[in-house]
Design a protein that fits this description.
The chain is mostly helical and 517 residues long. Helix content is 73%, strand content 0%. Helix 3 (67-90) packs antiparallel against helix 4, helix 9 runs parallel beside helix 17 (410-447) and helix 12 runs antiparallel to helix 16.
Length: 517
């Protein structure tokens, strides 16, 4: 019913949060700061990739340059739960300021790196701050707006990622070609400085006593934080490097997985005894949060298919230039935020869960359709599928994030949001390892020997691919897309079986303090 405002689901009215008594100008300034902070993290994911040849040419270290991306990703992923808990304990503002400062320090250090080892180490420092940027910005977006207005801010943040995906490679290429690759990191400094100034000046949180916190809640589970960091780092390193730096069944791989499993046991033991654990058990005991975590984990898994394998398919199978191949991929960043912004009109009528199921069900059909494209086909065919896929995933992701944030109060929102982002990031890491192994297996069976996607794509730099190679790459990418479709189907099943049809109202929302003021 339109006159009653948004509902948490299709029949029960939402428990409304208190009205935000903030001036429009002040909230607008904070939103601008959040978008700038998110732009730092979003651009970092794309702007560095185009400058790799210049970086390697200057610093050397071609054999380990992949750690420029892996090291950053590992640091972001393993720190998300820690920052989520810290923001629930001490507030969003100090965590965001500290994370931004660490990110900017890492950017400055990257700009003065003297060799590849130093640059990788400083990229990890960047990632330590990047975890705070991603998690805390998403949490503050929910703090700033009441439930019925949250799609607006989430759509803006999605637009930041979309613009970064399109503009990042171009900016990185221009800076590397006409200035110096070090400017790729230096441009973060003025952007981050403006974001920090706006946050410091305009973001005001209530005193901790107004949140109902007690002295015991200020205790930080540092042992748990260290254990989570070590466990995540070891397991993610095993996944990232397995099959790349060493074979899956080699001693380094088995040793890392064995150490990771031992650390998992240590994390469980420490967290069960902690008064305020970094990863509290309720994150997995509550059906809604557990279902959203698993579903978005599968989202991270399926996203690997287009982001990692589609550009290679476009260049080697379709014969497109790198810029045109990038456009085939980038079109989903145009439809995703538009669909996300419009999703509120859908979940107001059919609920969060059903909207997400509609989106991921459609995405599964699109992914399963990819192998049926004609060979070699025309560029508009995968482009159209990517445009549709972005629209479907916009209906899937945003309702789940807004919905799960509505089930918790202020004191649990940071942890909840961080757990969702952590699962999505972990899904991407697992997907890169699993689908990379699948693609390499298909190529080896079709081309013989020890062929893998990396060696084949490097060989393509010398000239057009032979017909047999093109066909093998097409089959490998088709197989990966089938796997991504299965991941989408699993996400649909998780929501159908595990998620409640009606998301419960926010716990403690009636006493929740204003986010800014």
């Amino acid at each position: 019913m339109q006159g009653e405002g948004i509902r948490v689901d299709d029949t029960k009215p939402a428990i409304r949060e208190p009205a935000r008594q903030v001036s429009t100008n002040r909230r607008g300034a904070v939103v601008a700061a959040l978008m700038l902070a998110m732009a730092l993290a979003a651009l970092d994911a794309t702007i560095v990739s185009t400058a790799v040849p210049q970086i390697v040419g200057d610093l050397g270290g071609f054999s380990v340059f992949s750690w420029l991306f892996s090291g950053y990703l590992l640091a972001v992923t393993v720190t998300l739960p820690v920052y989520g808990k810290l923001s629930d304990t001490f507030g969003r503002k100090p965590v965001l300021i500290a994370g931004s400062a660490v990110f900017l320090l890492g950017s400055l250090l990257c700009a003065v790196a003297w060799n590849m080892g130093a640059l990788i180490a400083f990229r990890i420092v960047q990632g330590l701050g990047g975890g705070a940027l991603q998690g805390t910005v998403q949490t503050l977006a929910a703090d700033l707006y009441p439930l019925e207005e949250r799609p607006k801010i989430q759509a803006r943040l999605s637009t930041v990622w979309a613009v970064a995906a399109v503009a990042g490679p171009g900016i990185g290429g221009v800076l590397a070609a006409y200035a110096d690759w070090r400017w790729i990191f230096l441009v973060n400094l003025p952007i981050g400085a403006v974001a920090l100034w706006l946050i410091t000046r305009h973001l005001h949180e209530p005193q901790r006593s107004l949140r109902g916190t007690t002295a015991t809640r200020t205790r930080v589970d540092w042992a748990g934080a260290l254990a989570v960091f070590a466990c995540g780092g070891v397991l993610l390193t095993a996944l990232v490097q397995g099959g790349v730096a060493w074979p899956w069944l080699s001693w380094p791989s088995l040793g890392l997985f064995g150490t990771g499993l031992a650390l998992v046991a240590a994390v469980v033991l420490i967290e069960r005894r902690a008064a305020e654990p970094i990863i509290p058990g309720w994150v997995w005991r509550r059906r809604t949060i557990a279902a959203v975590n698993l579903a978005l984990g599968f989202l991270g898994l399926l996203m690997v298919a287009p982001t990692v394998f589609l550009p290679t398919y476009a260049q080697s199978v379709l014969g497109l230039a790198p810029v045109a191949a990038g456009f085939v991929l980038s079109v989903w960043t145009l439809s995703w935020p538009v669909s996300a912004a419009l999703s509120q009109h859908v979940y107001r009528r059919i609920g969060f869960r059903n909207t997400a199921m509609l989106g991921i069900g459609t995405a599964a059909l699109i992914l399963f359709a990819f192998p049926f494209l004609p060979y070699p086909g025309a560029a508009w065919q995968p482009t159209l599928l990517m445009l549709l896929l972005g629209g479907a995933l916009g209906l899937f992701q945003l309702p789940l994030i807004v919905g799960v944030q509505s089930t918790v109060g202020w004191a649990e929102r940071g942890t909840t949001t961080a757990s969702v982002l952590f699962c999505r990031q972990t899904g991407q890491t697992v997907g890169a390892a699993v689908f990379g192994a699948v693609a390499n297996g298909v190529l080896a069976s079709r081309l013989g020997g020890a062929s893998d996607l990396d060696s084949v794509t490097r060989a393509l730099d010398a000239g057009p691919a032979p017909e047999a190679t093109r066909a093998a790459i097409a089959e490998a990418v088709h197989t990966v897309y089938v796997g991504a479709g299965c991941a989408a189907a699993l996400a649909f099943t998780v929501l159908l079986v595990l998620a409640p049809r009606r998301f419960p109202g926010a716990r403690g929302a009636l006493s929740e303090p204003s986010a800014t003021g």
